[in-house]
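Risk register update: the risk of archive-format incompatibility is retired. Evidence:
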Amino acid sequence: MLYFRYLGQEKYTELLDLLYKGSLSFLDHNQHISGADLGILLIEVLVKSQNKNFTEWTPKLCKIFAKISPTTVERDTFIVNTIRWSSLDGKHGHPFLHQNIAQVYWNEKNYVQARHHYLHSKDGNGCARLLIEFQSMQGFRCEADLFIAQTFTSYTQQHPNIKRSGPPYLLPLLNFIWFLLQAIESRKLATFTVLCQQYEPSIKRDPCYVQYLDRIGQIFFGLKPPPQQSKGIFDNLIQSFLNSAEDDSDDDISHPSSSRQIIENTDLD
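Archived output:
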C-alpha cells in the first residue's frame, strides 16, 4: 500500500529509498527472490521518475546485484532492466554501470561476463588486469596472446564506428595491433621490426607505446633492453630491433614468415 501511495503522490525520492532499503533487507536475510523483485520495482521507478543520476544509483544497483544469488532467475531480469535504464544516454548502457557490473562478475570469478562488460566500460586498466588473471587462472602460459586477441576482436566488432573483425581498418593503430598479434604468434623478430618501422608515426603519438613495445620485444622476441642514448628512446628501440634481426639465422632471412608476407603485401594504413 505504501508503494502505491508514494507512487500516486509522485514521492519518488521516498519511494526509491524505501525500495532500496527493502531490497537489501530481504537479500541480507537470504530472501533472494523477494529482494530481486523489489530491485526490479526500484528500476521501474527510476525509469518512471526519469532519474538519470547514474553516479548515485549505479553503486547502489550493483550492490543489490552482487547480493542476489547467481542461481536466482530474477537476477538476469534485474541486470537487463538496469542496463536498459542506463541506456537512456547511450545505446549499450552507461560505461560506469558496465564497469561496476564487470567488477561484480570478476569477484565471482565469472571472467567471461566480466570481460564482456569491461568492453562496454571505459576502464581499460581494469580490463587489462582482468585479462591477466583470466589467462593465468584458466589458460596456459602460451595462450596470453590469444586472450588479448579475443578481446581486441570483440571490441572492433562491437564498436559502432568500426564493426570489423579484421583489417583493413580505417584507423592505423588498429591495423598495427592486428598485425602485432600476428607477429607475436609467429615469434618472428624480422616481422616485428618491419611492423614497428612501418607504423612509427602512429606509434609516436603516445610515448607510452614505445615502452610497451620495448617490453613486448623483450618478452616475446628475446630482445635486450635498448641502451640509453641521447638520440631518443624510439630510435634506440628500433636500433635494438635491427641489431637483433641481423643476428637471426640465415633461415629466418631467406624464408620470411607468413605474417611478414602479409605485412609487406598489404596496405598497412
